[in-house]
Design goal:
The complex is a heterodimer of chains A (1071) and B (486).
Chain A (H helix, E strand, L loop, with lengths): L11 H10 L1 H6 L16 H5 L2 H10 L10 H22 L25 E9 L2 E10 L2 E7 L12 H10 L9 E2 L2 E2 L2 H17 L5 E5 L5 H13 L4 E4 L16 E4 L6 E5 L10 H10 L4 E2 L6 E2 L4 E6 L4 H5 L2 E5 L1 H17 L12 H16 L4 E5 L5 H13 L7 E4 L5 H5 L3 H9 L5 E5 L3 H4 L6 H5 L4 E6 L4 H4 L3 E4 L8 E4 L5 E4 L12 H9 L6 H10 L6 H10 L9 E2 L21 E7 L12 H4 L8 E2 L4 E3 L1 H7 L14 E7 L2 E9 L7 E6 L28 E13 L3 E2 L14 E3 L14 H6 L1 H13 L16 E6 L8 H9 L7 H5 L8 E9 L2 E10 L8 H5 L5 E3 L5 E3 L9 H4 L7 E2 L10 H5 L13 E2 L5 H20 L3 H17 L3 H5 L5 E5 L11 H6 L4 E2 L11 E4 L1 E3 L12 E3 L4
Parallel strand pairs in A: 6-7, 6-16, 9-12, 9-14, 12-13, 13-42, 16-17, 17-18, 22-27, 24-26, 30-41, 31-40
Antiparallel strand pairs in A: 1-2, 2-3, 4-5, 4-18, 8-15, 10-11, 15-21, 19-20, 22-28, 23-29, 25-26, 25-28, 31-38, 32-33, 34-35, 36-37, 39-40
Helix pairs in contact in A: 6-26, 8-19, 8-20, 11-12, 11-13, 31-32
Chain B lengths: L8 H4 L14 H13 L5 H27 L14 H25 L6 H25 L25 H34 L3 H10 L7 H34 L11 H27 L8 H31 L3 H12 L3 H13 L7 H4 L2 H28 L14 H24 L5 H10 L8 H9 L13
Helix pairs in contact in B: 2-16, 3-15, 4-5, 4-8, 4-9, 4-14, 5-6, 5-15, 6-7, 6-8, 8-9, 9-10, 9-14, 10-11, 11-12, 12-14
């Protein structure tokens, strides 16, 4: 097959060839979600005409399916019908790759592979230029669950939503499965041969015109391969582009970067940093942040912990960080730099007072002065964290503040990669665009990047791309970029790949595959090997060779590094912080305040920059604050919605949710719905990019709105000058929590830290919380519980286990990781937008976000993970006519799926509404590849069956089995030493037992265990001690449900110098 | 001669009564008139049109059920938190409608209210068909209807029994017993009339069919004796069911912990509501049938008047229930209860609540006026309003209680889908189609009981004036007043 069409057929003709050959092109032409997202380039004369007959022809091509794409449920049907054939076609077309032996184990195999017993392998997930270490659970050769690697510095045993959901991507039937050339199916060998010819041609002029565009690379081996390539083709260029990353945070040319140590910080100021959300560092950041917020009364001689860190957040768009902050200042983006300057001045002055600062108004001045005073008071125990997307000048200011308060070296370290020559040579996307504009790129290779979607709109990337002679895309999906390329090479998922990856502090992990590639896919290493002409080398050999020179010289070390999941001593060395670049003249972020709205661009919290658009778990994951799924509405403040845009009455601002507005910005416009978010600054609009894709796959195509269509290269993060026009129409949004006001109910208890341990004499936080917080109520409710308010006898748990859970709402940051972990562990289906709109989402766990106070000016949000409470007197159990939900001898409230006939009475009678019902056939039980990903320990539920959290009963069963076996051994053991060893083993098993949500939680907010259990020293289990805490309470105990899941009240640590209402106050820009 | 003026001071304290049936009838005319509706009269055009429309609706029901079984209960608008929607609303509504039939035939029989005679047959048929329509819903609304038989306690290899603590379980017993007793009661009451039909039918096959159904009734004194004994026994059995069935249905709600459901007023309030709606439905159906078949002689204004009075009385009990619910909601000081009441009154379903108040609390007050009770078109309109009101009541109870309960995070809304409406309208079709068939194929008024009444009318000649008066005040059942034609 010729690599290129003859010269006279280039350009549009190329595309025509592709179109005829590949039915995908035509079938998808009619599914552009809106006019803005439609390709600006016609692909045939018919399309140019865009006539009715043409559209009809498109429909006729797939008449039965043409309309099915829109409705997720129908789409699911379609997936069922087509999935099997597509997957099988892929399998048949797959050339089996040479087998490689994978030996390493995290726990060395003392038994052989036992069906039904999971094995764990260490690996890592690359994400946006950094990696998070994982332990992948393998059941009979299939990865079915991902956990964090406790040894990995970016994970510490926890993970985030993306790592959890990446498993679903592995088994996504929409992944590209076959190499295509001009739309025709071909083979990897065909590509290797063709690229060999091409590279021979490139050799003649030293690679002049050869360009490689990648996403941010965290694989040192890949960087090394690129460096080799650039060495062999000196005129070739490498460009790196990560849509969600600004150039500011110590990038190109200045590789030093800050690594925060929040566990040592007692005072934290966030300068528009959503460090609890911003991937991929957030997992460790949450762990460290929560470490300073574990408020515990001492028991049995332990000291307890009553000190708590204090977080000041100065931010624009409300984030999880702002939600957790003890004081939050909501400001327009243009004000942040000024506030950073003020904070620096205040800190430098030594004794800050509000009058000194030049802040825009009183509230901000007070805030800055109080924060500065607090920082100074806790010198070397405080830190300023700055947002990644803030301009370099703000980073410089933050660095200066950190130096002034003695944070550097204690709460913030600077590291710099050693021997990273390749990164220094990497250009940016704008460099590439310049080259392309001048016609100096004749062959462009795009690896795991999707610039056709993500490139700034002012770069006209598609137009420039179509002028490149040879275009090759290497990606997981046949995406927007692949569509415009001559060759598309399906990429292997990281769970199918050999590679390596560095965490943000430099710690390297060897990525080992968990499964043979499901399809005819390749890794970027394979691709580089093909470019380099090294046909006999494999990706594994390449990685192995690279590390041979860097400490893993012998196979024992190599094996150990793979087993452990980290390469020893690979972390970057600490360096002195670079001299602060107080780049006052930098134009970014200094955009003058104008009449219009300021606009903030952020990656979507669920599907990030769009790369997870086809991941159903993430699409259906409620956004942390708005609880919207399947869409990316623009966010505005209550005041803006009520008074400026007049979208809603003042007493019910949420009426504005879903109203369409037109955002006009730099001559472009986009129409999208708005959602009101408490705490958003006025006259500012936040838009999230990543949605509105038209080639994502069956799940992601056509969801949301493409914000990339207005994002420009010089204002990737924020800008001023947007105009908003109110439309008359509304857009249906699928929201899982439409009502976020707490209605004055005693659901989340919020208590200032000063009251901890005091029974009386405390200032009210709000009336209903005062009466009930701390000892007063709980003593009362304890007493309440002792009255036999039930006809039925008490259960007896004196022998055996008695499970219980405690959730610390002071630690919980609302990151949603538990929701996805639960979904992954328990085979929970995705239901689609229409079903979510109808209140039928299936997640067993949800994070409720509540606000208190008046609807027009609410306080909050406060997060409360809500799952089955496993009530001792469960209202659901009594009402089931067939006894399908029962009480176990260990105190679990169990669902017997087989017995359930689906009366839904149990759900009606559940005051927590944590039960989920299969109203339709939600589980995909037919698509073969989807079946591979199911957890074999958990039943896949059919339609008409109720389901809910089981406390991960499958994990309990496994531990119980092991413990029972050990107990038998214990009883048979002769010598005391043997008994002691077995006893230690039992304790290890018990302490290893974790529910999925507990295991994934970066904040360690969830504690689960046996309330009967005592360790050899007689100490009760962690969960027993949590339940005994003075601030532990049960939700809705007035119903006499006696829940097994208890909550620790949300503690706040407000600064007495600041009025509490500053928390969500708005600050106007410069007068 | 419609009725006598009171003649002595004693009678002045007793409300004057119109006779139960219009005068001028003898045994022959009664039998001729009622059996003739089935046997000799041509099928009327209105019957054909009415039956055709009902039959179309039955087909809507079949289609809705087929789609429901094929796709799952998700075709309805139910969700979490509103796990029960139209299906339960309609179930309770239909069961309630059935109650009037049992009340009229059983309780009024035991209380010797002879005015019931003209309407009891029809009301019993209505009960049966209403309960049949109601019975569909619990089966259809479960997630896996093909396993609904697990609700019954039957010996099985899994050694599993239903869970007797669940009110849904009690429901199964209550409703199935009710249906059974109603069916037997209705059929036993039909036997003498079936014999009459047998004897009057001309065509052989029809004679044969009625003959089979008449179970060899010959009208002997022994037959009558046995019949009366059985009928009164069955009435005695059916009487507690009037109270128990809707009590059990109300316990589905009352035993739960949902604010708005968890209420001790529910059993009496539901029973009163059931009788209220049942009489409304009897009126809604009787008035047109009376007009079309010209049954004014048998279903007199007194019947309508009495039924309107029962409606007024039970309606007032229902209103008292509403008041108590609201009062307790605030008086309890329970924030969930208080919110529930406020939400009913001013929340998203407030229009439903206020329409319910209009239909059930305000409009029936017109029935205080005798002139309105005797204004047939107006009475008919009020009965329809009450039917709608009682449906709304169940809607308000089921939906508004569920849609906003304890945790605001799980609050949601319920919107019925086309398939919700399809099943609902379809059961109305099933109900009407059954009634049309009943009207066409069986005597819709009890022939022999009317003859019994005729026998007691003074002008029938076999009773003295005084005896007639006594009977009007203290009506009684006299054994073997007329016998069959045989």
């Amino acid at each position: 097959m010729p690599l290129l069409a003859p010269p006279d057929q280039r350009g549009e003709n190329d595309l025509n060839v592709m179109e005829k050959a590949c039915p995908h092109h035509e079938s998808e032409a009619n599914e552009a979600p809106d006019a803005a997202a439609a390709p600006e380039f016609w692909r045939s004369f018919n399309e140019l005409a865009d006539t009715a007959p043409f559209r009809e022809a498109l429909h006729r091509e797939f008449p039965a399916l043409a309309s099915e794409w829109r409705d997720p449920v129908s789409r699911r049907n379609f997936m069922k019908v087509m999935g099997a054939s597509v997957a099988l076609a892929g399998m048949v077309g797959c050339t089996k790759q040479p087998e490689e032996k994978i030996i390493p184990w995290v726990q060395p195999p003392d038994r052989t592979v036992v069906p039904g017993r999971a094995m764990y392998f260490a690996t890592a997930m690359p994400f946006g230029g950094e990696a998070i270490g994982l332990l992948a659970e393998s059941q009979m050769g299939r990865p079915v669950k991902l956990e964090g690697n406790p040894d990995h510095p970016a994970s510490l045993g926890a993970t985030d939503i993306f790592a959890q959901a990446s498993l679903l991507t592995l088994y996504d039937p929409d992944r590209a499965q076959v190499v295509t050339n001009a739309g025709r199916l071909t083979t990897w060998d065909g590509f290797v041969k063709a690229i060999g010819d091409e590279m021979a041609g490139q050799k003649l002029n030293a690679g002049m015109g050869l360009a490689i565009l990648t996403g941010a690379i965290c694989s040192p081996t890949l960087k090394d391969q690129i460096a080799q390539l650039l060495k062999r083709y000196p005129q070739a260029r490498w460009y790196e582009y990560e849509p969600s990353r600004s150039q500011a945070a110590g990038r190109a040319g200045d590789p030093a970067r800050p690594v925060y140590r929040l566990e040592k910080a007692r005072r934290i100021v966030s300068l528009d940093s959503d460090f609890l959300e911003s991937r991929p560092q957030n997992v460790r950041m949450i762990r460290d942040f929560a470490f300073g917020r574990k408020i515990r009364a001492g028991d049995e001689g332990t000291a307890g912990a009553t000190a708590m860190n204090r977080l000041y957040a100065i931010e624009c768009t409300p984030t999880l960080t702002g939600a957790m902050a003890d004081h939050r200042l909501a400001v327009k983006p243009s004000v942040i730099k000024q506030l950073a300057k003020d904070l620096l001045a205040a800190v430098q002055s030594g004794k800050p007072t509000p009058a000194q600062t030049g802040s825009p108004d009183d509230a901000a001045a007070q805030f800055i002065a109080a924060a500065a005073a607090d920082l100074l008071e806790h010198r070397a125990e405080s830190v300023v964290v700055v947002g990644d997307h803030q301009p370099a000048s703000v980073h410089a200011l933050a660095q200066q503040i950190n130096m002034a308060i003695g944070a550097v070296g204690t709460t913030v370290n600077w590291v710099a990669p050693a021997n990273d020559a390749a990164s220094a040579t990497a250009g940016t996307l704008s460099d590439l665009v310049n080259e392309m504009r001048q016609g100096r790129v004749n062959a462009l290779l795009m690896i795991e990047t999707n610039p056709v979607l993500t490139a700034p709109v002012d770069s006209n990337f598609v137009e420039l791309l179509t002028q490149v002679r040879l275009r090759i895309a290497h990606s997981l999906y046949y995406d927007e970029t692949a569509y415009y390329c001559h060759w598309h090479l399906p990429a292997s998922h990281y769970l199918e790949s050999w590679s390596d990856a560095r965490a943000d502090d430099g710690t390297a992990t060897i990525i080992q595959p968990l499964i043979m590639p499901l399809y005819q896919t390749s890794t970027p290493h394979d691709l580089l090997l093909a470019l380099l002409g090294q046909r006999d080398t494999t990706a594994r050999d390449t990685v192995r060779e690279y590390w041979r020179g860097l400490g893993l010289s012998n196979d024992v070390d190599w094996q150990a590094a793979i087993e452990k999941g980290i390469v020893p001593n690979s972390a970057y060395p600490s360096v002195k912080p670079p001299t602060a670049r107080a780049d006052e003249s930098s134009p970014d972020g200094d955009s003058p305040a104008s009449d219009g709205f300021e606009i903030v661009f952020r990656p979507d919290p669920s599907i990030w920059d769009g790369r997870y658009a086809n991941n159903g778990w993430l699409q259906e994951l409620p956004k942390p604050l708005t609880k919207i799924t399947w869409d990316n509405p623009a966010l505005i403040s209550i005041d803006t919605a009520v008074h400026k845009l007049k979208l809603a009455p003042a007493d019910n601002p949420s009426k504005a949710n879903g109203r369409m507005v037109g955002i006009k910005y730099r001559g472009r416009s986009i129409e999208m719905p708005v959602v009101v978010v408490p705490g958003h600054p006025d006259e500012t609009i936040t838009v999230h990019y990543g949605y509105g894709r038209n080639r994502a796959g069956r799940v992601g195509t056509g969801t949301g709105f493409n914000v990339y269509s207005i994002r420009c290269s010089d204002a990737m993060g924020q800008d001023a000058g947007a105009q908003i026009e109110v439309g008359s129409t509304s857009y249906p949004l699928a929201c899982t929590q439409e009502h976020q006001m707490m209605e004055g109910r005693d659901i989340v208890r919020v208590v200032p830290i000063g009251l901890f341990g005091q029974a009386s004499e405390h200032a009210p936080e709000s009336p209903q919380q005062t009466e009930r917080d701390l000892e007063g109520v709980d003593a009362e409710s304890e007493q309440f519980r002792k009255i036999p308010l039930t006809l039925y006898p008490e259960y007896d748990y004196s022998s055996g286990h008695k499970w219980g859970m405690s959730i610390d709402m002071t630690s919980c940051v609302g990151c949603n990781a538990c929701v996805i972990a639960c979904q992954s562990e328990n085979n929970i289906p995705v239901v689609g937008k229409a079903q979510v709109m109808n209140g039928r989402e299936m997640q067993w766990m949800r994070i409720d976000a509540y606000y208190t106070g008046e609807a027009a000016d609410p306080q909050g949000p406060y997060f409360q993970p809500m799952l089955c409470q496993h009530c001792e007197k469960a209202p659901c159990e009594l009402v089931c006519p067939v006894g399908a939900t029962t009480h176990s001898s260990e105190g679990l409230n169990e669902m017997v799926y087989n017995r359930c006939i689906g009366t839904r009475y149990c759900s009606n009678n559940c005051p927590y509404k944590v039960r989920r019902f299969n109203f339709l056939q939600y589980s995909d039980e037919t698509t073969p590849v989807v079946q591979l990903g199911h957890n074999p320990d958990v039943t896949v539920r059919d339609r008409g069956v109720m389901e809910k959290c089981t406390y991960c009963v499958q994990r309990l069963n496994e531990t119980r089995t092991d413990v029972k076996r050990l107990e038998v051994e214990y009883s048979l053991a002769r010598s005391p030493e043997q008994k002691q060893a077995i006893r230690a083993e039992i304790d290890r098993e018990m302490s290893r037992l974790q529910t999925a949500c507990q295991q994934v939680c970066p904040a360690e907010a969830i504690v689960f265990g046996d309330l009967n259990y005592k360790d050899p020293a007689g100490r009760p289990s962690d969960v027993t001690r949590m339940h005994a805490q003075p601030h532990s309470y049960g939700v809705l105990t007035e119903y006499n449900t006696q829940p097994r899941t208890m909550y620790l009240s949300r503690m706040r640590n407000p600064n007495p110098a600041l009025a509490p209402d500053v928390k969500t106050q708005n600050v106007a820009p410069h007068a | 001669m419609a009725y006598r003026e009171p003649t002595d001071s004693y009678e002045r304290y007793i409300p004057a009564k119109t006779p139960v049936i219009e005068p001028g009838h003898d045994y022959e005319s009664v039998t001729e008139k009622i059996s003739g509706l089935v046997l000799t009269q041509h099928t009327g055009r209105w019957w054909i049109v009415g039956f055709f429309i009902s039959f179309l609706l039955v087909n809507v029901l079949f289609i809705s059920i087929a789609w429901l079984l094929y796709k799952g209960v998700g075709v309805w608008g139910i969700n979490i938190p509103v796990g029960w929607g139209f299906a339960i609303v309609n179930f309770v509504w239909w069961i309630g409608i059935g109650h009037a039939g049992t009340l009229i035939s059983a309780i009024l029989l035991l209380l010797k209210q002879d005015w019931r005679t003209s309407i009891n047959r029809f009301a019993e048929a209505m009960t049966l068909f209403a309960v049949a329509s109601a019975g569909l819903f619990p089966l259809l609304h479960v997630g896996r209807p093909w396993l609904a038989y697990w609700l019954f306690p039957y010996p099985n290899t899994m050694l599993l029994w239903p869970q007797f603590r669940s009110p849904l379980m009690w429901d199964v017993f209550a409703v199935s017993t009710y249906f059974m007793i109603s069916l037997v009661f209705w059929y036993v009451g039909l036997i003498p009339d079936l014999a009459t039909m047998r004897d009057r039918a001309v065509l052989k096959p029809i004679k044969y069919i009625y003959g089979l159904m008449a179970l060899g009734w010959r009208g002997s004194a022994r037959h009558w004796h046995r019949y009366e004994t059985a009928y009164v026994l069955l009435a005695g059995l059916a009487t507690p069911l009037v109270v128990s069935v809707h009590t059990v249905v109300s316990l589905d709600f009352a035993t739960s912990i949902i604010p708005g459901w968890h209420s001790t007023i529910f059993p009496p309030y539901f029973v009163a509501g059931a009788i209220f709606s049942g009489f409304a439905m009897v009126l809604t159906l009787t008035i047109p049938v009376r007009a079309v078949y010209k049954l004014h002689d048998f279903i007199t204004l007194r019947h309508l008047d009495n039924m309107a009075k029962v409606m007024l009385a039970t309606g007032l009990i229902v209103v008292y229930g509403y008041f108590t619910e609201a009062f307790i909601g605030f008086y309890s000081g329970n924030e969930y209860e208080t919110y529930m009441i406020r939400n009913r009154m001013f929340g998203p379903y407030a229009p439903g609540f206020w329409s319910l108040m209009l239909c059930n609390a305000v409009v029936p007050q017109l029935l205080w006026f005798r002139s309105i009770r005797r204004n047939v078109p107006l009475l008919w309109a009020i009965s329809i309003v009450v039917n709608i009101g009682m449906w709304l009541e169940r809607y308000v109870i089921v939906i508004t209680s569920l849609h906003r309960d304890a945790l605001p995070s799980s609050w949601g809304m319920y919107y019925p889908t086309i398939w919700d409406w399809g099943v609902f309208v379809g059961t109305i079709g099933l109900f009407l189609a059954n009634l049309f068939l009943f009207i066409r194929l069986l005597p819709l008024i009890s022939v022999f009981e009317i003859r019994e009444l005729v026998s007691r009318q003074p002008e029938a000649g076999n009773l003295s004036e005084d005896e007639g008066k006594d009977n009007a005040m203290i009506p009684g059942i006299k054994p073997n007043p007329a016998g069959g034609d045989a």
